[in-house]
Design a protein that fits this description.
The chain has about 270 residues and is mainly α. Helix content is about 75%, strand content about 0%. The protein has 10 helices and no strands.
């Protein structure tokens, strides 16, 4: 009755169930919520440890400028804004396109849509940013377009897989009861495909937060500036600090995606 999640571990959620035996839903839920509570605690501990270590290391003028609280907060805001804006644009484009592709009269678009999505992800992200900058110029718009092109495939693919995985007998039963096509889509297909679609959005969110560091190469701001300065000016403390902050952001984004999956997942799935 439900769609199959391509990103879910086929061996089972907790790895403790016998082969071919799905663990109880209540057990999965408890293990999931334990993991959801533990992860932000570990991230906060890691960031506090990083702060205490960096604070105890003497910094020269360059390091002090990049590690200044106001500067770091400004770059953090830019990074988060770019990532959220790009993810929203990705969802707005990929989910409706995925719905369209699964409709009987538009299935011929599927190879074209998936081909373009594969092409966007096959091109190295730094190469994609540079190519778009040569075409569109530098700035925030170029960065957002590059991040959307890079992250659209997981959402598009999961939307298609989620909708195509819905049991056809359920859809036919709904139609047999007289439900119009739009009602079948919004009340049957999309709710059952939500877990798979959310898994794709979660993947895109992490990709976007991690790749937004490339914005610094085209004047888009973000946390990439500190990373590049640390490498280019031989300041390892900058590279390590900004690298850990970016990694923590990506983990937080993944955690938010997991929370959304648990909250929005239809009961009983």
């Amino acid at each position: 009755m439900t769609a199959t999640d391509p990103n879910r571990n086929p061996a089972g959620f907790d790895g403790g169930a016998a082969p071919g035996t799905a663990p109880p839903i209540a057990g999965r839920a408890r293990a999931g919520w334990r993991g959801l509570v533990l992860r932000p605690i570990l991230i906060v501990v890691a960031l506090v440890t990083l702060y205490l270590v960096v604070r105890g290391i003497p910094a020269d003028s360059i390091e002090a400028r990049y590690l200044d609280g106001d500067e770091l907060a400004r770059e953090l805001r830019e990074h988060v804004w770019l990532s959220i804006l790009s993810t929203v644009c990705t969802i707005v484009i990929a989910v409706p396109l995925g719905v369209l592709i699964t409709r009987p009269g538009a299935r011929w678009i599927k190879p074209v849509g998936l081909g373009l999505g594969n092409l966007g992800q096959a091109v190295p992200s730094i190469g994609l940013v540079v190519l778009l900058a040569l075409w569109m110029g530098t700035g925030t718009t170029t960065v957002v377009v590059a991040l959307v092109v890079y992250a659209v495939l997981p959402v598009l693919r999961n939307t298609i897989v989620g909708l195509e995985g819905v049991d056809r007998t359920v859809i036919e039963s709904a139609r047999g009861m007289g439900m119009p096509k739009l009602a079948v889509l919004t009340r049957i297909e999309l709710p059952l495909a939500v877990p798979v679609i959310l898994a794709g959005i979660r993947t895109a969110l992490v990709l976007t937060f991690a790749s937004a560091t490339l914005a610094t190469f085209v004047g888009g701001g973000g946390l990439g500036g500190g990373l590049v300065a640390g490498i280019g000016l031989d300041r390892p403390i900058l590279s390590v600090t900004y690298g850990i902050v970016v990694a923590a952001l990506a983990l937080v984004a993944d955690w938010l995606g997991l929370v959304a999956e648990e909250v929005l997942r239809p009961k009983g799935i």
